[in-house]
């Protein structure tokens, strides 16, 4: 079955930069299980480094002519749409309509596009809603990773099996986002005197057990509604949205060379 090429080519150089950025951001999420010291670190340093590396991705794509004007325009339109959808779920536990657009867009346009789309849309959403704070770096990379993974799903799967695959992925992505968001505030959330508190210099197994208990105690209120809502949106609208996005991909002819025909009188 013929598949459409990615809007942004996933080159070896791009993959290396994304790997380095993901390494720094992963360190910002996972430090509680490996950190040695009494004072909690300033984890935003990891995310500023990761943001810098991710910005390099855009520069590399533009300089190598792998990101043309139409790709930038599409990235801007979809980022604005996702940023506008996110506040619709504000105040409702896990009801966030932005995720199904991110997942379906990354599915059609590829992993590099999905990574940038998740990152930019989450940042723009924070600007619109005043949600700028220490948590923003975590949210940006959680969304970027979800876009990257959605764009990396098998391309040849189509029809009902594709919708089923995306529904299963949306359930995974909802839980994945919940875990990452819990990681970003768990060390500070409960103080130091509870059975679920983070233990500085504690054993890996002990802190992991405490975190998992803390996460699943709160996951039902957020992750489960998010998974059900996103999965339902994909089931009801996934086919139509995918068709529209693929038509956009085909008609826009991303990265097609511009040819000027000489007119002879």
UniProtKB/TrEMBL annotation:
One of its GO terms (cellular component) is membrane. InterPro entries: ECF_substrate-spec-like (IPR009825), ECF_substrate-spec_UCP037395 (IPR017196). This is Uncharacterized protein. The chain crosses the membrane at residues 15-36, 45-63, 69-88, 100-126, 132-151, 163-186, 227-245. Keywords: Membrane, Transmembrane, Transmembrane helix.
